[in-house]
Amino acid sequence: MSGAIFLSASVPDPQRAPEFATTSDSVAIAAAVSALVFVALGRRKIIWGGHPAITPMISFAAKDLNIKYNEWVTLYQSNYFKEEFPEDNSKFDNVVYTSNVGGDLKDSLVEMRTKMFSDNVFQAGVFIGGMAGIIEEQKLLKSLQPNVKIIPVLSTGGAALQVGADEGIDAEELRDDMDYVRLLHHQLEIPLDEKRYASPAEQPEDLELRRWNVGDH
């Protein structure tokens, strides 16, 4: 299996983060997350810090793909938020819980993110919409995995714009292309003809063996 994809996404809250909410597009954020699920699941593992609004979105988008959801996605969540965990957590055996560090939000998030980025090797990080936490995740991911490809979906606005600025990324397709399936196939270098597998164990290591041949159709 190729390296995993880290997803960092949220819809900015106008009350908590008006500076990010004013530039964000909630419809585009939802569309980009759904496109990532469609492009990657069954081909690459998706890992994220389970944001309450994003987790149900991903499980819904994945339900018709005929893959073993538990084996292709992993959520990391801090026990700091134990009382706020979404119902979806209880449905799947794919959640890694990290410590509530002294009842401190900042320290607990650092603990969760550090474990997430230490446990897994990522080929790319995809940043969609979001608030300050997305910027913090980008900085920590780059410090622990400096060769990871950073993909800020600039058209979704929010903190993804700051991630792009920090990385010096202002590609036209990331700004203007809202065909997110096409965009993410290109940015993640996942061929259009790559097969989808029910579980990672079924996926050949050799990329060429994963591609559809004429006789397969």
Automatic annotation (TrEMBL):
Keyword Membrane tagged: yes
Pfam family name, one: LD_cluster3
Keywords: Membrane, Transmembrane, Transmembrane helix
Membrane spanning residue stretches: 20-41
Protein name: Uncharacterized protein
Organism: Jiella pacifica
Lineage of origin: Bacteria, Pseudomonadati, Pseudomonadota, Alphaproteobacteria, Hyphomicrobiales
